[in-house]
Amino acid sequence: MRHPLSLAKLYALMEAELRGKNSFNQIPIQKRKMKKIRNILATLSILPMLYFSGCSGGEHADDGNSSKKIDSSTTFAYVTNGVDPFWDLCAAGVRIAEEEFGIKCEVLMPPKGVVDQKRMMETLLAKGIDGVAVSPIDAENQTPFLNEVAQNTILITQDADAPMSDRLVYIGANNYKAGRALGKLIKDAIPEGGEVMLFVGRLEQLNARQRRQGVIDELLDRPAQDLDKVKYDQVDSTNLTAEGSKYVILDTRTDNFDKAKAKSNAEDAMTKYKDLKCMVGLFAYNSPACIDAIKEADKLGQIKICGFDEQDALLQAITDGHAYGTISQLPWEYGYESIKMLKDIYEGNKPTTEYVEKSFAAVTEENVAEFWAKKKEMAELGKSK
């Protein structure tokens, strides 16, 4: 039975409240520069350039020029970078696309990082998967393996990119712009300025580095950078500030996806920095960890919280006035658009761009109720299989 929700209805509900209030929420599709050709056979035109294969092993992947028909056996996979409620929201979009297009879809969430993600993708290839949309955990070091995947099936990236790999398309928010939007929330939260601490799972992920740099550049009133030319501050930089700036970025604490470590990082920060004004979570679970630490220290309201994504604990804190706001990537769009892109490529519709830029929204006290209602609906749908 087809799910009664349509994508148009989902978007309309969000647009009415969110996009009307956030000028940075509607972002155009952009093109990325073409990757350097690494295969000498392709360079010499000795063989046709075949990026993707069909579902059977041993074939080379096509680049969208060949045409195949979707049938009951067609199966795509949506592979996350971990286990988190954020990915249940992405899965909701996958399920909507699955029903709409009549495609079988697997949603896989690796619990133990890179090793599990690789094992899952190897299993998918062995089963003859027709296409994979993956969020790489460590793009630079995973590129050789991702290239192997791209030789055997359709490969796109979502949420986090691997720009030097042979993936055909990246679907995701401009994380640098999203970081700058988060920086604006921080400015609104503490307009008087002050000390700011950043928290993130790991900085090996490109999206994490881009978000971090966006926050830093916005707080220090630096000029905007193009996504493909971002210059990054050193990951171990401390006490970042600028002449005339009211803000100091004390440090960036990482936890390697360890939620207990994330909380202890927040506790340590409060102990070390007595004048800390704002804690900023760059991954979904970081802000809730900060909230727990602040509650236990009896400092709710004294230290502002701004974050990324839309965990219930953060939305509740925004509702209660204990956190200022968050940037949501509207993750159900990721899931839907990823499956739609795999379908289009499978059917022979070659992508016209390497980067499909998705929208994001600022969630504050003004619109948290409407956003949370939609998020709950999507969370239930994402858990339905």
Strand content: 15-25%
Helix content: 40-55%
Radius of gyration: 21 Å
CATH class of the largest domain: Alpha Beta
Taking the sheet with the most strands, its summary is: 6 strands, parallel
Q: Estimate the mean pLDDT confidence.
A: 85
CATH architecture of the largest domain: 3-Layer(aba) Sandwich
CATH superfamily of the largest domain: Response regulator
Oligomer: single chain
Number of helical segments?
Answer: 12
Based on secondary structure, the structural category is: alpha/beta
General shape:
globular
For the termini, the CA-CA separation is: 14 Å
How many β-strand runs?
12
For the largest sheet, list the strands in their spatial order.
2-1-3-4-5-11
**What is the H-and-E element order?**
HHEHEHEHEEHEHEHEHEHEHEEH
Low-confidence stretches: 1-60
Total number of domains: 2
Assign the CATH topology of the largest domain.
Rossmann fold
